[in-house]
Structure formats: structure tokens, C-alpha cells
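Subject: sequence -> C-alpha cells, single chain

Hey, anyone have a minute? Need the predicted structure for the following. Not urgent.
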Amino acid sequence: MGNFVDPFLHNGFMQRALLAGILVSLTCAIVGTYVVLRGMAFIGDALAHGVLPGVAGAMILGMPAMLGAAVGAAVMVGGVGFITARSKLSNDTAIGLLFIGLLALGVVLVSSSDKLTGDLESILFGQFLGVAHSDLLAQAIALVVVLVVTVFAARPFLLLCFDGDLTRAMGYKAQWYHRLMLLLIAGTVVVSFQTVGSLLVFGMLLAPAGVGALLAKRIGTMMLWASVVGIASTYFGLLASYHFSWAAGASVVLTAVTIFFVVFTGVSIRHSIVGDRS
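Reply:
Had a minute. Here:
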């Protein structure tokens, strides 16, 4: 039992990492549920990678990495809107072009700067075990903002997940709420990348929410399941990282993805048995 508890009782950095992981898990559970239900995985992935040049540029200039991530996310979201509004290109095409362009720019910046040689791993995979109190505060504020916006926009968000035309018929501005949802996704990526990294934050958005979608039919219950999976993944992923010297962020996301496939297999087997009986 000590192996499961002692690392968090006697190490301040593990306690901060666990708290940061819980905050990230709760935020990603809420936002990730909408990403899964609306089929917005591509834009989520693009945002997670699109912050890379912003972070790299900020670190080269000696500015806060989170500010650079915010700029990168803003360029991605604004660029998609600009391209689709002024051309016949689809959303996916615009996202794909900006995704590849920003990722390539980030790789160029990282590879051409000696300043970033030692920081590349932290940019890509986060600093789970080096979370500062300021990071915890930022993540707590982000969680509160996400909760407030989600409560305020619960009905239009629900309608938007299933039928955009119905959203407009009910008197809501579908495009406005779509942009608000994009801002929530972007904000979650910007705040969470400091902990799990720009490459792994996408996994925390998708895997726990994917489990919620498999196990529940109501959005609130999906978010609850996603929160449980995210927190469990954080706890057991950090334990694995502590005992086996694995990368903390990658261990947490790998745990979440493993839970998803275990649940997916179980649900598939159950459906097969029920189908055979009927």
C-alpha cells in the first residue's frame, strides 16, 4: 500500500503534480466532451500542435511561454476563420494548412535556436514534475472559467453538438457559440500545455472524454466519467513515472489511452453478447 501512497505523502513536487493533473483532467473532461461529441478532434489536434511556434518564439525572446502559446492558438483560430470567410476552402482544408504550416514553423524555430535545445522536451511533453504554484493558479482559473462558460452556454452547446440548424431555429447564434467553443478548446490547450506538453494535451482532451462517450448518453454523465478517468490516469500515471522513471506527462496520457481501449473492448464484447442473445 505504501508504494501507492508514499510518493504523494513525502514529496512536494508529486503533490503539486497530482493537483495540477486533477485540474487539467477536470478542465479537459468538460471541454473534451464537446470535442468528442462535435467531432472536433482535428481542430483540437491542430491547436495542440499550433501552439509550438508561439511557445518557441516566446522562449527565444525571453517572454512567458504561456503568452506565446496564446498567440499560437489565436493565429490558428483566427486564421481558420479568415481563410474560410474569404475563400471556398472548407474548414478542414484551412485547419490542415495552418496545422502543417505552424508545426513546420515551430520545428524550424526549435532546430535553429541553441536556447531551446534543453527546453525541447519540456515544450513537447510538459513539466509535470516541475509545476510551479503560478501554474496551479492559472489552471484553477481556467477551470473556473470553463465551468462558468459551460453553465452559461449549456443549452446552445448541447444543441450545437447534435444539430446546428436546430440551434439557429431555437434562436441561438450557432456561429457565435461555435467560436466560443473554439475559444474554450484553445484556452484549455494553452493552459494545459505547461503541464502535459503541446503534443500530449490532445490525448487528455480525447481519451477520458472518449470513455465518457462509451459509457454514458447524457452530457453531464459523460463529463463525470471523463473526470474520473482523467484523475485516475493522473494518479496511476504519476505513480508509474515515479517508480519506473518514465516521462510523467507521457505516462499519464498513456494510462488514459489504455483505459479507453480497455473500456472500448469491454463495451464491444458486451454489445456482441447482447446482440447474439437478441
